[in-house]
Amino acid sequence: MTARNLILALLTLLMAGLIVMGKDKEPGGQMVDSGSFGVFMNGRRVATETFSITQGPKGSTVTSEFNADGQAQSATQDSELDLNPAGELVKYDWKEVTPGKTQAVVLPNDNFLIERVTANPTDKPQEKPFMLPSSTSILDNYFFIDREVLVWKYLATSCRQQQGQTQCLVNQKTQFGTLNPHEENSMAVSVEFSGKDRIPIRGVDRDLNRFTLKTENGDWSLWLDDQFKLIRILIAGDNTEVLRD
Fold this sequence. Notes:
It contains 2 helices and 18 strands. By secondary structure, it is mainly β.
């Protein structure tokens, strides 16, 4: 299956002409992407995110585990994002495994999204509604694979497909509505294609597609390969770099 068909199945949008992503069959569907990211602050590795994206006839699932290494103790969080065949939110779960036990779930409810947060397993969930449609993108703290999915949506909605190639106009900007469940707030962000860059990745020069994610909290630079898999993120204001292992 080509990446074109994988992304069409994920988002049911006009996406075409991408290079083959993967053909491994999984019990829950076909694997679209999997791997891990190293998170570096001031050049020191501080965390690892392990992720997978699978696609099946009922939609797509993005799972992630984030492990942070602190001086006193480590911290682990899990997330699972379920999308229907139209790329709309079915359910989003995240939970702290260690050291806390906070859990949250986001579900669509008519024209709203409802977030239910539980600080402890025995507590009653606290609900917060958001006037957002189910097409809203989840951009949670710590789970960087969410940014890859957002760029796929940008490719599907803002770029042309011609002669088997995806062609994006440099500096073309598209706005998306997002929800950050960790911070319990929504935000409008924009994505734009910034052109091709040749940059060193672990000592090897690579030609990568650069995208800029603009938020009210600052800009993120994202580099994806020609299969549109996320390779690097740079958050200059935080001295933070994310690299695919």
